[in-house]
Write a structure and sequence with these properties.
The strands form three sheets. The protein has a six-stranded mixed sheet with strand order 3-2-1-4-13-14, with helices on one face. It has a four-stranded parallel sheet with strand order 5-6-7-8. The chain has a four-stranded parallel sheet with strand order 9-10-11-12. It has a domain of 269 residues: Metal-dependent hydrolases (TIM Barrel). The protein has 395 residues and is α/β, with parallel strands linked by helices. The model has no long low-confidence stretch (mean pLDDT 97). 35% of the residues lie in helices and 24% in strands.
Length: 395
């Protein structure tokens, strides 16, 4: 049995940060116990910093790792889509796979124990199947033209079968309201719901809301300029449109696990409507990506006021400079200083594991679990993250 201690310890959402905490664990990483050290100076392995369970990156696009540094910031969603269309395949498959492998290794070393990852092809399947990071893969589909729906679904079903051959937990999922015909939103949602898990880019930008509410704005102009169909103008927030498309799959309530990603333009009206139908919904925030593209952040005070289950993701290196959960948490802390660090840690650990259905093994430092143990250094004297905070995996 091994023992490690540190200035601070976070074990899970049932407790806040404790000073001078220790963790005992077996050789295979199974937690034996955790508590407060009566005499820190006598601890054989005492670290400066904060011990936490392994992180859960609840939204990542690993296969876009080769795009680091290629995109202009502040382009808005319309400009970002143009850059994706131009640059996504600018390099070889071999280089794309190599960059994905390099960043998967970085995620593990920095303490990510599990991830909800988006795939549009099979390039990362072998990598994820051999990684110690648990990954649930969401096979994201696009298609603005209604007549293409059946062909798109047939293709993603074949991709799902290939993913399962690699031993991955994987299923189709819809991307967003503006990249899909109404028919495809419902069809892809049906595939994901049948597997019990669905991830969806929701209310990421004001351009998306303008498109759905009034049929105007840069995103609407972009799609019409490329002679692509746009979703129906509803006069309502785009999230409400998505929930209505889910209702075409089966009668509510929805007990399946649904992850709504970004939520930059979330309103009380939209979340009330959603919670009336979705009984197992989590809300992922990716603040550095939102700043990169839109210079905007999700309404965290509104989300906390309503007791939403928030998770933390990094998005991709096309819209971020790093895949570092500590940087995301620091961004949240600085933008919303009223949020205790222990609460942010719950978003980045337990809540993500809860969405993935993995709290039996991950998400908290509890006896019998194997969440991984991570040391976050560069902690202030008051127990807050700093600009110098970094993480490293202990087990």
């Amino acid at each position: 049995m091994k023992r490690i201690a540190a200035e601070y310890l976070y074990t899970g959402p049932d407790r806040g940060l404790v000073e001078n905490g220790y963790v005992e664990y077996n050789e295979d990483g199974t937690i034996v116990c955790a508590g407060v050290s009566p005499d820190p100076e006598t601890e054989p392995d005492f670290r400066k910093g904060l011990l936490v369970p392994g992180f859960v990156n609840s939204h990542c696009h690993l296969e876009l790792s080769h795009l680091k540094g290629k995109f202009s910031k502040g382009s808005g969603m319309s400009g970002f889509i143009n850059q994706i269309n131009e640059l996504r395949d600018f390099t070889s498959v071999e280089n794309r796979k190599a960059e994905a492998a390099r960043w998967m290794d970085a995620l593990w070393r920095q303490g990510v124990s599990a991830m909800a990852d988006i795939s549009n092809c099979d390039e990362t399947f072998a990598l994820k199947s051999s990684s110690p990071v648990y990954t649930r893969t969401f096979l994201e589909v696009f298609g603005t033209e209604p007549q293409d729906c059946a062909q798109v679904i047939d293709g993603v079903r074949k991709l799902a079968a290939e993913a399962r051959e690699y031993g991955l937990d994987a299923a189709p999922t819809p991307h967003a309201c503006y990249t899909m015909s109404p028919e495809l939103v419902t069809a892809a949602s049906a595939e994901g719901l049948s597997a019990g898990f669905l991830s969806y880019h929701s209310e990421e930008s004001q351009e998306e809301e303008d498109l759905m509410i009034s049929g105007t704005g840069a995103l609407a102009d972009n799609y019409r300029g490329r002679h692509l169909s746009t979703p129906p103008v509803t006069g309502k927030p785009s999230l409400m449109y998505f929930v209505d498309r889910l209702r075409e799959v089966h009668e509510p309530p929805f007990e399946e696990h649904v992850l709504l990603v970004h939520n930059v333009c979330l309103t009380q009206e939209a979340l009330d409507y959603t919670l009336g139908y979705l009984k197992n919904v989590w809300w992922a925030i990716c603040p550095l990506s939102n700043i990169f593209i839109h210079n905007a952040l999700p309404p965290v005070p509104l989300m906390r006021k309503n007791g939403l289950r928030i998770t933390v993701g990094t998005d991709s290196l096309s819209s971020n400079d790093t895949l570092d959960i500590v940087r995301e948490m620091y961004c949240i802390q600085e933008a919303f200083p009223e949020v205790p660090l222990a609460e942010i840690l719950a978003w980045a650990t337990y809540n993500g594991a809860d969405f993935l259905g993995k709290t039996g093994t991950l998400g908290s430092i509890s006896p019998g679990k194997k969440p991984g143990i991570v040391l976050v250094s560069g902690i202030s004297g008051s127990g807050r993250l700093t600009a110098d905070s970094v993480s490293e995996r202990i087990i």
